[in-house]
């Protein structure tokens, strides 16, 4: 027990250290390099009129906070879905939930832009949440009829294809200017984030994260089976609804601001479970949040620096690092079943 506690403490310290290192590198690296002395002067409030201050304070810092908040949100959302379906392959992207959110956001975005209206953060989140809930509804209907998780995953992929096809169909008849805006968003990126958007993200993600953490005890009971959870007084029907709601809110917030981001919700919770050596929610939820923040900060750093000044989509980078983890999990799971 003592060894496990020490392991968890060291794992949290390592994640915090990685987060601090990635933040420092993200501050320095870019089209304009900043020295540590420049960063220290800017953070202490000196020389507020300089170009360096504008680059760090108005561009890089909001982007960094967005990557950390949304990466953590997506990872926690994946952990909640994996708990709900009792399977490590479950995730917002694989089950088509992110694609459903993308579809509704695209429809609303084209509608707003077609009428010359500005689509605010609240409208984006509401549209993404509606799309997430619609896709989740389809997944739940299929889950009641299908017991094998592999079949459910295939159905989720099919839902994703259907949503993408409908999105492409709608885009075909949209104005050219609207297509450009939609294309930039649908590629997935943390660029262009403003302080107002960061405030909205924090107002949505942090309360949802705290609620998820407060549910750690019933989640732990649910992991041991519905019958065991009921014996401890957990209202399983309400608990499952709360789990779906929180997961959808977190994944919807990510899709609304950064577009569809792949594999973070599947890969990171599994890596954190291996890292901490436990599946206890009281450890996994904050661990997944920190792990998702680190993973997305690292991916964002690669996306904007590897082929600078050309920027890669964040989803492409997360897929490169996340997909091998998913393949490894599936092979390992198949081997364990033999």
From TrEMBL:
Subcellular location: Cell membrane
Lineage: Bacteria, Bacillati, Bacillota, Clostridia, Lachnospirales
TM stretches of this protein: 61-81, 93-113, 119-143, 150-174, 200-222, 243-272, 284-303, 312-331
Source species: Ventrimonas faecis
Recorded topology in the membrane: Multi-pass membrane protein
Cross-referenced PANTHER family: FERRIC ENTEROBACTIN TRANSPORT SYSTEM PERMEASE PROTEIN, TRANSPORT SYSTEM PERMEASE PROTEIN
UniProt keywords, alphabetically: Cell membrane, Membrane, Transmembrane, Transmembrane helix, Transport
Name of the protein: Iron ABC transporter permease
Secreted is among the record's keywords: no
SUPFAM superfamilies cross-referenced by the UniProt entry: ABC transporter involved in vitamin B12 uptake, BtuC (SSF81345)
InterPro entries from the UniProt entry: ABC_BtuC-like (IPR037294), ABC_transptr_permease_BtuC (IPR000522)
Family: Belongs to the binding-protein-dependent transport system permease family. FecCD subfamily.
């Amino acid at each position: 027990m003592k060894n496990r506690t020490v392991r968890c403490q060291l794992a949290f310290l390592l994640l915090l250290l990685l987060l601090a290192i990635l933040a420092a590198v993200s501050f320095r690296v870019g089209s304009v390099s900043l020295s540590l002395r420049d960063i220290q002067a800017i953070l202490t409030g000196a020389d507020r009129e300089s170009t360096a201050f504008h680059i760090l304070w108005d561009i890089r810092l909001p982007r960094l906070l967005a990557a950390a908040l949304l990466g953590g949100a997506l990872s926690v959302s994946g952990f909640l879905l994996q708990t709900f379906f009792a399977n490590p392959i479950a995730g917002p992207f694989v089950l088509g939930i992110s694609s459903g959110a993308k579809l509704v956001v695209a429809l609303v975005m084209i509608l707003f832009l077609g009428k010359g209206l500005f689509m605010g953060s609240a409208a984006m989140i509401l549209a993404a949440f509606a799309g997430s809930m619609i896709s989740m509804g389809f997944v739940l209907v299929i889950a009641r009829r299908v017991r094998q998780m592999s079949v459910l995953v295939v159905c989720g992929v099919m839902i994703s294809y259907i949503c993408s096809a409908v999105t492409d169909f709608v885009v075909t008849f949209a104005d050219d200017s609207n297509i450009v805006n939609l294309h930039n968003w649908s590629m997935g990126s943390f660029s262009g984030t403003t302080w107002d958007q960061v405030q909205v993200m924090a107002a949505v993600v942090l309360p949802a994260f705290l609620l998820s953490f407060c549910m750690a005890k019933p989640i732990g009971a649910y992991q041991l089976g519905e019958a065991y959870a009921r014996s401890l007084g957990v209202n399983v029907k309400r608990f499952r609804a709360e789990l779906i709601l929180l997961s959808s809110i977190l994944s919807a917030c990510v899709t609304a601001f950064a577009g569809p981001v792949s594999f973070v919700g599947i890969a990171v919770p599994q890596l954190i479970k291996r890292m901490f050596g436990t599946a206890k929610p009281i450890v996994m939820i904050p661990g997944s949040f920190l792990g998702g923040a680190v993973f997305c900060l690292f991916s964002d750093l690669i996306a904007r620096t590897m082929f600078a000044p050309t920027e890669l989509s964040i989803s492409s980078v997360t897929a490169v690092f996340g997909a091998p983890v998913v393949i490894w999990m599936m092979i390992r799971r198949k081997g364990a079943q033999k």
